Each structure stands twice: as structure tokens, then as C-alpha cells.
UniProtKB/TrEMBL annotation:
Keywords: Membrane, Transmembrane, Transmembrane helix
Primary subcellular site in the record, as a coarse category: membrane
Lineage, top ranks: Eukaryota, Metazoa, Chordata, Craniata, Vertebrata
Species: Penelope pileata
GO molecular function: ammonium channel activity
Transmembrane segments: 12-30, 42-63, 75-95, 107-125, 131-150, 199-219, 231-249, 281-305, 317-338, 350-378
Protein name per its UniProtKB record: RHD protein
Cellular component, GO, one term: plasma membrane
SUPFAM superfamilies, sorted: Ammonium transporter (SSF111352)
Length: 405
């Protein structure tokens, strides 16, 4: 390889071996699989696992020279993060003397938790090397579990609802990390897509769209209602994405970026209220509003935030996950008001705790994300130079290009 390419042979493999050895030792002491029967079925876990591996793996393959890294590093951080997440939960169960979960249940919850890290990695897509991604994964999954624990213990959120903050936490943690990385050159040809990469990315969107009802329902007791409500929200969200995309373009043509993000916005939003909705038309309205917010966010909010804050959101996680999640949190507050109107004495506390949990989640995500971004730029982690952003060849072997090196 050329001399200006970093050699990660003496860092990444040894870090991975060390982490895996530590995980094996910790699993020996803190996790035995549990004896209770799982609340989560294997098909349910399987669908969520496919969503994370296939869905997000292809969803982020839109950069023309970063497809190997988008899918490969996505697999790496997921399998590392799931192990770390299981250990954190096992340690929390031991310290708090909670019911020990079955192994399948633990893996499913850890897989859902890893959505936060995958979303955050999208904000810095193409700018981070494997060392930085591994460190970010370990730090973020620990902080996310700490945030969940605070929401459950002190703000009285249910474990299922605290997990739905995964989109909110992942989006704003990723934006905060991204603020510590340099912006790519506006003229950079590598920070662009091709018809082939857009098609693969759309394939990821289709995977996520199909499996999202399983994601929203796998941890909820009223899973049937959550599945139906999620489907209606996703359906209207996708239709609205096409409609607005055609209206916003002067030539009336659809834009792949709009469909890529807004088609999923309804699924993100409905996750906060999937167990509170009894009529499909309500879920459909939320899907419509989520799609509108997502597309308007991609057109206006990002352009307003980028110059003053110097945040380059590589894959648009703010308007794909962050803004729809905020809408979902607001919708949940509205449903709680409607549901508890006859119990005004306790309604104020419920609303206060719900809003407080959202604000706390965003605050923790922004603060710890900013600190993590500073850590990732330490020279020890070999930050990627701006000239090598969005380039697979910096990390992967290409045999047909290696001749003569």
C-alpha cells in the first residue's frame, strides 16, 4: 500500500483480540443464559437481527467509494456491541437484584440497543477508522444503558419505552460526535453516490421498511397492535415521501434521498405510541406528519444548522431518526394527556417525567457525544485525514489495485 496509508495491523487486530478475550472472561463470571423461558420468540429476534445487519448494512451504502466499509464495519460494531450490551445488562441485573433474563431475551434487547450505535455511525460515515468506531461503540452502548437506567429508576419509564429512546439517543449522540470532525471538501467527488450505490441503499431502506413492525413490537406486550399501527404509519409515510418529493422538485421527478429517509420516518415516530393507539387513522396521521418533518428537515433544517454549528451529518440521521423521534415523543405526551384526563392529580407528574426523560436522553447524548468526539481525535486512534474520507481503499484490500505497490 502507499506510504500515506495508515497501517492498522498493530492496533485494530490486537484491540479486537483483547476485547473478545475480555468478553469471554466476563461472560464466564456474569452470564449463564438464565433458566426462565423467554418473553421474546426466536422469529421475533430473527427479524430484528435481520433489520440491523441487512437493513442498516445496505441502508448506508450510498457513497460510491465506501460500500465495503459501510457494510463490513456495520457488522463489526454490531457483533461487538451486542456482546458488550449483554454484559452491561447482566451486571445491572446482578447489582440491582433484578430478574435474570433468558439468553435469547438478552440478545434481542442488546440487538435493539445497538440501533443507537448504528444510527450514530451514520452521522460520521466515511470519516472514522475501525479503531475509532470500536471505541465509539463501547462508549456509546455503556452511556445508552446508563441513560436507560436513569430513565427507568428515577423517571419511572417502562423498560420498553426507555428502549424506544434509542433513535433519539443515537441521532443526537452521532451529531455531537460529528461536530468534532472536519467537513469534507464541497468539491469532493468521493462524497457522492452513483445509481448503483443508490439502488443498494434503497434495498436497505426496503429491508428496514419490511422489518420495522417487528422492531417496534418485539419488546411490547401488545405486540399485535404495535405491528398494525407501525405498518399503517410506514405505509402513509412512504406514500407521503413520494408525494412531497415530486412536489418539491421543479421537474416533478422523485428524489432518491427523500424516499431513502422519509419512508422510514413513520416507523420511528410510531414507536413511541404504538401501544397507545387504538385506531389506525391516528397512526396514519402520525406517519404523514413524520414524513413531512423528515423531508422538510432535509431541505431546510440541515442547511440552517450546518453553517453555524459546522456539523456535517453524513447520512442525514437528524431528519431520518432524530426529528421523527422528537415528534413521536410529543405524540406520546398527547396520548398520555388524553388517557389520563380523568386522573388530573397524577397526570402532571406523568407528563413531567415523560418530557424529562426526553430532555435527559438528548442532553446525555449531546454531552457524551461531544466528549466522545474529542476522544476519537486523539492521535493514538490514528484519525483519518480529510483527504482520505469516504474511501474503502484506505482500509480494505483491492487485489486488482494492489499490483505494483
Amino acid at each position: 500500500m502507499p506510504s500515506n496509508y495508515h497501517n492498522f495491523r498493530n492496533s485494530v487486530p490486537w484491540l479486537l483480540i483483547f476485547l473478545e478475550a475480555a468478553f469471554i472472561i466476563l461472560f464466564y463470571f456474569f452470564s449463564d443464559g438464565g433458566a426462565s423461558s423467554p418473553r421474546i420468540s426466536y422469529p421475533g429476534f430473527q427479524l430484528v437481527n435481520r433489520l440491523l445487519i441487512f437493513g442498516f448494512g445496505f441502508f448506508l451504502v450510498f457513497l460510491k467509494r465506501y460500500s465495503f466499509s459501510s457494510t463490513g464495519f456495520n457488522l463489526l460494531i454490531i457483533v461487538l456491541g451486542v456482546q458488550c450490551s449483554i454484559l452491561i445488562e447482566a451486571l445491572a441485573d446482578l447489582l440491582l437484584q433484578r430478574r435474570e433474563k433468558n439468553a435469547l431475551e438478552s440478545i434481542a434487547e442488546a440487538t435493539v440497543s445497538m440501533t443507537a450505535v448504528v444510527i450514530s455511525s451514520g452521522a460520521v460515515l466515511g470519516k472514522t477508522n475501525p479503531m475509532q468506531l470500536i471505541v465509539m461503540t463501547i462508549v456509546e452502548i455503556i452511556v445508552f444503558h446508563a441513560s436507560r437506567w436513569i430513565n427507568i429508576m428515577f423517571l419511572k419509564l417502562s423498560p420498553e419505552m426507555s428502549m424506544m429512546h434509542v433513535h433519539l439517543f443515537g441521532a443526537y449522540f452521532g451529531l455531537a460526535v460529528s461536530s468534532r470532525f472536519s467537513e469534507p471538501s464541497p468539491m469532493s467527488e468521493k462524497n457522492a453516490s452513483t445509481p448503483k450505490s443508490d439502488l443498494l441503499s434503497l434495498l436497505g431502506t426496503l429491508f428496514l421498511w419490511v422489518f420495522w413492525p417487528s422492531f417496534n413490537s418485539v419488546l411490547l406486550p401488545r405486540s399485535f397492535a404495535a405491528i398494525c399501527n407501525t405498518y399503517f404509519a410506514l405505509a402513509v409515510s412512504a406514500v407521503t415521501a413520494f408525494a412531497l418529493s415530486g412536489l418539491m422538485a421543479k421537474d416533478g421527478k422523485f428524489r432518491m434521498t427523500h424516499v431513502h429517509s422519509a419512508a422510514l420516518a413513520g416507523g420511528v415516530t410510531i414507536g413511541y405510541a404504538a401501544d397507545k393507539i387504538n385506531h389506525p387513522w391516528i397512526a396514519m396521521i402520525l406517519g404523514l406528519l413524520a414524513s413531512v418533518i423528515s423531508i422538510l428537515g432535509s431541505g431546510f433544517v440541515q442547511s440552517c444548522l450546518k453553517p453555524p454549528l459546522k456539523i456535517h451529518d453524513a447520512s442525514g440521521v437528524h431528519f431520518t431518526f432524530g426529528l421523527p423521534a422528537l415528534l413521536g415523543a410529543l405524540a406520546r405526551v398527547v396520548f398520555l394527556v388524553i388517557e389520563g384526563w380523568t386522573h388530573l392529580s397524577s397526570l402532571g407528574y406523568t407528563i413531567m417525567f415523560t418530557i424529562g426523560a426526553v430532555c435527559l436522553t438528548i442532553s446525555i447524548a449531546l454531552i457524551t457525544g461531544f466528549i466522545t468526539g474529542l476522544i476519537l481525535n486523539f492521535r493514538l486512534l490514528k484519525p483519518t485525514p480529510v483527504s482520505k474520507y469516504f474511501e474503502d481503499q484506505f482500509y480494505w484490500e483491492f487485489p486488482h489495485l494492489a499490483v505494483g505497490f
